[in-house]
Design goal:
Blueprint (H helix, E strand, L loop, with lengths): L1 H19 L4 E2 L15 E11 L2 E15 L2 E10 L5 E10 L5 E10 L2 E9 L3 E4 L12 E3 L5 E2 L3 H6 L8 E7 L8 E15 L2 E10 L8 E6 L5 E7 L5 E6 L2
Parallel strand pairs: 1-11, 10-11
Antiparallel strand pairs: 2-3, 2-16, 3-4, 4-5, 5-6, 6-7, 7-8, 8-9, 11-12, 12-13, 13-14, 14-15, 15-16
Keywords: Signal
Protein name: DUF3108 domain-containing protein
Organism: Pseudoduganella albidiflava
């Protein structure tokens, strides 16, 4: 009996060590995502605000819409700024259904009477400006990517389609279209779980964290365990303030 217990204990310790040292799962662009079915057609709105020792300051209302059209999925986003300075930003992105492989991405920003149009096409080895898009300020863009990249401006829904669970880690290649940073791998970890307030009451959530490849910084996401819809996100900014995104409906 003592020998059996010691063998069992050794097996448990080995399993725990293996789990703790397991490498993040690389999510390759173009492969079917295990929980893609959790993405549903419809709209969700979030309030974005800045939190500091002095109080809270509203930034904007953020709407995200999902639509399916055959083998393609479309995600539309809109930010309406809060306050005297009127500004609106709209994004329209298309993807391959089931894999979330990005196809096109259009960004339109209107601020202080000025309109800026940016459009991009994603391919396996590069991201380029859409030459056929009228007034495209990014038509000459050509960024090479050593690995196929996901669209960084739709990471919220992409994480929703992953198999979130205790101890799960995912490594994904992201690119923010038109940004200064090159396509790169980022790691997202399920750090635990917590029940937090939601629009209709408490929501049991997975806590997902990342440092966006900036050691020392931490962004936290709360994803509802049932739907894997993002309920909240908090990111600490370089100036010490915290950017909060919280689900309204």
């Amino acid at each position: 009996m003592p020998r059996f217990r010691s063998t069992l204990l050794a097996a448990v310790l080995l399993a725990a060590t293996t789990l703790a040292g397991a490498a993040p799962q690389y999510v390759e662009v173009g492969t079917a995502l295990p929980r893609f079915h959790l993405l549903k057609e419809g709209s969700h709105r979030y309030l974005r605000y800045l939190r500091s020792a002095e109080g809270n300051m509203a930034v904007d209302i953020w709407q995200r819409d999902i639509h399916f059209d055959g083998k393609r999925m479309q995600i539309r986003q809109r930010w309406d700024a809060v306050g005297k300075a009127h500004s609106v930003k709209r994004l329209e992105s298309t993807f391959e259904t089931a894999t979330f492989r990005p196809l096109t991405h259009v960004r339109i920003t209107e601020k202080d009477g000025r309109k800026t149009v940016e459009g991009f096409t994603f391919a396996a080895d590069r991201i380029t400006g859409m030459a056929e898009l009228q007034d495209n300020a990014q038509k000459n863009l050509a960024v090479e990517s050593k690995e196929p990249a996901f669209n960084f401006e739709t990471d919220m829904e992409l994480l929703q389609a992953l198999p979130l669970a205790e101890g799960y880690e995912a490594q994904l290649v992201f690119y923010h279209a038109g940004g200064s940073a090159a396509p790169a791998r980022y790691t997202f970890r399920v750090a635990g779980s917590e029940a937090i307030a939601g629009p209709a009451g408490p929501v049991d959530c997975w806590i997902v964290t990342t440092d966006y490849n900036q050691p020392g910084s931490v962004s936290k996401f709360w994803y509802a365990k049932g739907t894997q819809l993002m309920v909240r996100q908090e990111s600490t900014l370089p100036d010490g303030r915290t950017l909060v995104k919280t689900l309204l409906n």
